[in-house]
UniProtKB/TrEMBL annotation:
Presence of the UniProt keyword Signal in the record: yes
Keywords: Signal
InterPro entries noted in UniProt: Ferric-bd
Pfam family, one: SBP_bac_6
Gene3D superfamilies the record matches: Periplasmic binding protein-like II (3.40.190.10)
Protein name per the record: Putative binding protein component of ABC iron transporter
Region (Disordered) location: 286-307
Length: 338
């Protein structure tokens, strides 16, 4: 019953979709190929009692597009559950008062930075911000970069890369950096990176530029780096900033949030509870994106994880999302964009 046709998307956007009272409408920034089979599994378990109407956005700025649609629909919500594949813009919706609290059925050990202070969102199935290195170009492991800060090291001038920090996980990453070191220091760091590194359109493009030998290394996400490694390219994945004086590796979760005044909050809650489980995290871990489970009930360690434990960066995502529009304007100025 899962609907994903172009016609449905048009109708849904216009608010004219006739649907059962038991249907739940999901806006998903997670790629359709990953999210759709899981949503179909939920439908099957409901024995026809609850259907899923899913809207996927295929644009490179898909999270922003879906969030802007939710904001545009705030007076008459069409979406019940927002499944974001990152977190920054979920927190933006929280700060705009467009989400409602939910009693998330998660373990007491759930990381505090992956659950909203007001319980309006919860994070799961994470990706990490990692360095991808071409091992043919940098064969000596001791010579390879080990920190995000190496992006501004003149040693790597125009031989390293990152994605534009206005969308996706790179935007979240630099919002976190701004929150950690302050806006002035973060803008200085970003300006130095822009002068030193190659700025590409997205994380996938960074990973491909490194795997094909165009560049020696770059900052990307584990899913994009893992794909290149699985394709047999000569690349290594480095979880950065692991030394005691360094901040640790940033992990960015998928997030779930039920919309305030959602047309079907009960069904949305059932779907949220279904998704927020070790079973679903394991399915995402086993997939080609090798996402990293948070639940202690998870039974599948994703192959992208290194053998040694990773020290994760401690983050306050709610603080990092403060003043996003103004910060985005400042980032555009550094990038020389209007």
């Amino acid at each position: 019953m899962l609907h994903a046709t172009a016609l449905l998307v048009v109708l849904l956007c216009s608010g004219c979709v006739p649907r059962s009272e038991s249907d739940v409408v999901v806006y998903s920034a997670l790629d359709q190929e990953f999210a759709e089979p899981i949503l179909m599994g939920f439908e099957r378990r409901q024995d026809g009692e609850t259907g899923v109407i899913a809207k996927f956005d295929v644009e490179s700025t898909k999270t922003v597009g879906l969030v802007n649609q939710i904001i545009a629909e705030k007076d008459r919500p069409q979406c019940d559950l927002f499944w974001n594949n990152e977190i920054l813009h979920t927190v933006r919706l929280q700060k705009l008062g467009l989400l409602q609290p939910h009693d998330w059925n998660v373990a007491a050990t759930w990381p505090k930075d992956l659950i909203a202070s007001d319980k309006t969102w919860c994070g799961f199935a994470t990706r990490a911000r990692v360095l991808i290195v071409n091992t043919d170009m940098i064969p000596d492991a001791a010579e390879r970069p080990n920190s995000v800060d190496d992006l501004r090291d003149p040693r790597w001038a125009k031989d390293c890369a990152m994605a534009r920090p206005l969308f996706g996980t790179t935007a979240t990453h630099f919002a976190v950096i701004r929150d950690r070191i302050g806006p002035d220091a973060a803008l200085k760091m970003l300006s130095q990176i822009v002068d030193n590194a190659v700025i590409l359109s997205g994380n996938k493009q960074v990973a491909q530029a490194v795997s094909t030998g165009r560049l020696a290394w770059g900052l990307t996400d584990t899913d994009d780096a893992f794909v290149e490694q699985e394709l047999g390219y000569p690349v290594a994945i480095i979880f950065p900033d692991q030394q005691p004086e360094q901040p640790g590796t940033l992990r960015i979760p998928n997030t779930l949030a039920i919309l305030k005044d959602a047309p079907h909050p009960v069904a949305a809650g059932r779907l949220a509870d279904y998704l927020m489980t070790g079973e679903i995290e394991d399915r995402l871990a086993m997939g080609p994106s090798s996402q990293m489970p948070v639940s202690p009930d998870s039974k599948f360690p994703p192959p992208v994880l290194p053998d040694e434990p990773v020290r994760w960066m401690q983050v306050d995502f709610e603080s990092a999302a403060e003043g996003w529009p103004q910060w985005a304007d400042a980032v555009r100025d550094v990038l020389g964009e209007p």
